[in-house]
């Protein structure tokens, strides 16, 4: 099965020149258990890399596996051993794809798939009835949907907003597109995965309902907002832009070191949009407009452009000259809304906010470990010994989240949602400060104990 080539080439490859089957794949499971565990230890594992030919060489990939690319360029091990390991890993990768892909639903695997029962489906449907509430638990929803939170959520929101009817969308093509988006997120990433995308999409839905914004939104605006939220980090490799640049990754070269990840997310989304044929029935001009606006929204999530957007938002608020009847102003507010949704974790209730904080820091630390392994300078926030979770979060809230959400609060004029978010933000920051103080006290006590032990040891020696 081979899909049409696009900007984001997606190739369903064959193994050993013939069609893969469950029997062949299962032979390698036991011998590859150790290799599979090794994959799970790295945030940038080979994931869903496809395979082709007897040698097990890499065929067309999504393009964002920087550690693998770096390893292939720098390895000095024996080629025979590496080829064998790679073949096993890629066979397992194809098996994961074989089980997961909705495009192969007609094939019944030998092992039982863990399907949702009615109780779980009922709970998921009940949660969707409250999808507009800020305390929506995306982690629970992802469990109830058996890891399909992004597809399930977007299908519901497209129907809820009347987008399927308005744009006369084909349900099969819509589902295909949403599955492509969900499966192009790397599940091994602690933070930048499909659950994060679903969380951002749910937040974006809440923001699109804000009274000052909602009455000016067209169906196209809503569809663009939801699509951009869902795809804003698609195919994220689990490392940041500086890592791609210093490893001379081909994506950094392709986009000339400018918004490398965001450009890749956008182009990948365009490729999947075209491949799915979701908008193929619309005029060419309309499709091009959708693609360009999606790019403008996704590129706005580049954190290096934070000050640019923040300064413009402050200027508009100070001058009171924002008019959402103006298409450019409305698009700018959609960009700000997406930026807020992307970094809204500190504005969630503590138990969810804390989980997200731990996940993003775990991803940072994994990058730091990789940088140490490749003998690079460790990036800021990525040194687990020096950069603690409380200190990272306090800095993130103070310099990134608070300034942006204060301007969003000025725009929305302190709606109940905004008041709730700002309240959570203050409380969460206070809790992180408390944890940081406790951590410092613990370190001081440990240092004092070590000093006392050393002094006692010296006294004993003198006696």
UniProtKB/TrEMBL annotation:
It comes from Scyliorhinus torazame (Cloudy catshark). The lineage of its organism: Eukaryota, Metazoa, Chordata, Craniata, Vertebrata. Keywords: Hydrolase, Metal-binding. Belongs to the cyclic nucleotide phosphodiesterase family. PDE7 subfamily. AMP binds at residues 192-196, 233, 342, 393. Binds 2 divalent metal cations per subunit. Site 1 may preferentially bind zinc ions, while site 2 has a preference for magnesium and/or manganese ions. GO terms for biological process: signal transduction. Zn(2+) 1 binds at residues 196, 232-233, 342. Its EC number is 3.1.4.-. Pathway: Purine metabolism; 3',5'-cyclic AMP degradation; AMP from 3',5'-cyclic AMP: step 1/1. The keyword Transport does not apply. Residues 1-10 have a biased composition (Basic residues). This is Phosphodiesterase. Zn(2+) 2 binds at residue 233. Its cofactor is a divalent metal cation. GO terms for molecular function: 3',5'-cyclic-AMP phosphodiesterase activity; metal ion binding. It comes from the Eukaryota. The active site is at residue 192. Residues 450-463 have a biased composition (Basic and acidic residues). The keyword Oxidoreductase does not apply. Transmembrane segments: none annotated.
């Amino acid at each position: 099965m081979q899909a049409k080539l696009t900007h984001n080439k997606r190739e369903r490859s064959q193994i050993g020149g013939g069609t893969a089957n469950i029997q062949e794949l299962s032979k390698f499971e036991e011998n590859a258990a150790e290799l599979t565990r090794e994959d799970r230890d790295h945030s940038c594992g080979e994931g869903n890399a496809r395979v082709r030919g007897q040698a097990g060489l890499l065929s067309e990939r999504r393009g964002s596996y920087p550690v693998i690319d770096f390893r292939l360029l720098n390895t000095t091990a024996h080629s025979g051993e590496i080829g064998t390991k790679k073949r096993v890993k890629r066979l397992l990768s194809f098996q994961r794809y074989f089980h997961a892909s909705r495009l192969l639903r007609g094939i019944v695997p030998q092992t039982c798939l863990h399907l949702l029962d009615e109780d779980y489906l009922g709970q998921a449907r009940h949660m969707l009835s409250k999808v507009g509430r800020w305390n929506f638990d995306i982690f629970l929803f992802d469990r109830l949907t058996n890891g399909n939170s992004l597809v399930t959520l977007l299908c519901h929101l497209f129907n809820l907003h009347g987008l399927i009817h308005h744009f006369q969308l084909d349900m099969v093509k819509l589902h295909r597109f949403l599955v492509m988006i969900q499966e192009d997120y790397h599940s091994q990433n602690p933070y930048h995965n499909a659950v994060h995308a679903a969380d951002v999409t749910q937040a974006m839905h809440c923001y699109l309902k804000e009274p000052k914004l909602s009455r000016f939104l067209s169906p196209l605006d809503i569809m663009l907002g939801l699509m951009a939220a869902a795809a804003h980090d698609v195919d994220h490799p689990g490392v940041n832009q500086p890592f791609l640049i210093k490893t001379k990754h081909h994506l950094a070269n392709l986009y000339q070191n400018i918004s490398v990840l965001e450009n890749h997310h956008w182009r990948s989304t365009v490729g999947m949009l075209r491949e799915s044929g979701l908008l193929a029935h619309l005029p060419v001009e309309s499709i091009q407009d959708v693609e360009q606006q999606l790019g403008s929204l996704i590129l706005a999530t580049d954190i290096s452009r934070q000050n640019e957007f923040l300064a413009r938002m402050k200027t508009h608020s100070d001058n009171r000259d924002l008019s959402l009847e103006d298409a450019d102003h409305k698009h700018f507010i959609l960009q700000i809304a997406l930026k807020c949704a992307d970094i809204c974790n500190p504005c969630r209730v503590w138990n969810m906010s804390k989980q997200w904080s731990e996940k993003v820091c775990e991803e940072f630390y994994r990058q730091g470990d990789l940088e140490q392994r490749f003998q690079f300078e460790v990036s800021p926030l990525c040194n687990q010994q020096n950069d603690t979770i409380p200190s990272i979060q306090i800095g993130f809230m103070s310099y990134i989240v608070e300034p942006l959400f204060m301007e969003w609060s000025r725009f929305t004029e302190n709606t109940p949602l905004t008041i709730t978010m700002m309240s959570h933000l203050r409380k969460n920051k206070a809790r992180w400060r408390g944890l940081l103080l406790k951590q410092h006290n613990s370190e001081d006590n440990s240092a004092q104990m070590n000093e006392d032990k050393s002094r006692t040891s010296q006294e004993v020696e003198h006696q």
